[in-house]
Specification:
Strand content: 35-45%
CATH architecture of the largest domain: Sandwich
Structural class: alpha+beta
Shape: globular
Number of strands: 24
CATH class of the largest domain: Mainly Beta
Number of helices: 9
Helix content: 10-25%
Distance between the termini: 78 Å
CATH superfamily of the largest domain: Immunoglobulins
Amino acid sequence: MFLRVLFLAVALPVWLLAFQVVGQESSSELAVYTNAVVYNDPTLDPRVLLEFPFVLNHQQFELYRADSTDEASYSRIFVQVTLYGTDGLPIDSSNTYFSSRASSSPESEAEPTMLFNRLWLMVEPGVYSARVSVVDVVSKATGERFIPEIVVGPSVSDRLNIGGGCLAYRLTYVGDETTSDRNVRNGLRVLVSPLGAFAATDSAVYLYAELHNLTFSDTDSSSYRLAYAILDDEGGMVRDLGYKMRTKPGESAVIAQQIDIEDRVPGKYQVRLIADDMETGQGDTALYDLVIISEAATRIARSTGQATDPYDTLSLESKEQLVAYHLEPGQKLLLSRLTPEGKENFLEQYWRENDDDPLTPIIENRLEMIDRFNFANRYFSITSEEADGWSTDRGRIYMTHGPWEERVDVQAPTIGNPYVVWYYHSKRREILFVFEDREGFQDYRLVHSNMEGERFSREWDERLKTDDFRMR
């Protein structure tokens, strides 16, 4: 019998479509965003709760009418997780079969909505792998994600322990109300980001975790401390978010905390949680992966509805120009000797090897380079007929170093020709570039820089230090 469980499709930023899942073999398959979360709850010892939160794109599923009396349309979805041992043989599985109602509002149809759900298994401590498979029951389309290694440690009962945890798009308090919503845990509806991925335009993420083995007495209230920080991908401190003191509710506690990411640049980070029992001095630390997707990738997903790469629309000539200032001399020589097909393969391999974030199929730094390339051609080309701005002095510096952080533009100096100065303050050593329009045709040439390897002019160096220039 078909069990109809209706899950509301929640509208989320469309950028999620750009974050293709590792292990998904074809863009025509159903996108599956999932991961494994281990909850070491000592009350379940010796078994451990292993959860698989997953997110699906509702618009990828074909709709059907349930019956003639119901005007709404639904999707039917089957999801199964299969657990494998170290020998590669299946040892357990869990599945769910549910339906989701399609919204009739024009706004929700214009932007993809995401379905949140989860599966779980009770397992013994050990090392596993898992495959999460999705089937559109109506269209028979499929998708899957393979998780190669899941380490499940034994439950801890003799010391303070942070159990499981995840980063979420949203946390909503629902209390003790009875609900069939699988996303509810300990009175909170948790819309998990399985891969810890968020957009650069997001201002906050939410951390959910559980704390076990607090020393607790009904007659003597005491507290515990939670400290939060954002670390870089190598564990270095990016931002200390401070700490909060909490009164112990019992031997266990639920952790729900908003984490500000408004000023974080795209890249890979970690959210660190440190818990301390103030009575016993015991502590525990947990790390949660955080990936912030660039605005360029977000723009692509928003405009196309899928992870379409503008690199594919460039001519071979433009693709070569895109890397003109980044290839080594030997690479340039090799590229010049290849056939057109060989050049395409060479350039594709170059970008794959220089992908700043190989976790995603979108090469974000290539998108950024395309933005710089287009900007240079639009604003630095000598004539409107020629897209040659990339080859000018300003185009070279812009494509190499990116947008200036401060600009001084002098169109009518007391002495000399119009010039512009670009400053990059955030470099390890502040650098600057001076471009002068000697001919008066907006053809600004580099005449001075304090960067090693660039053109240096003692005259301009002294000129920039004068009171007359500093007062501008």
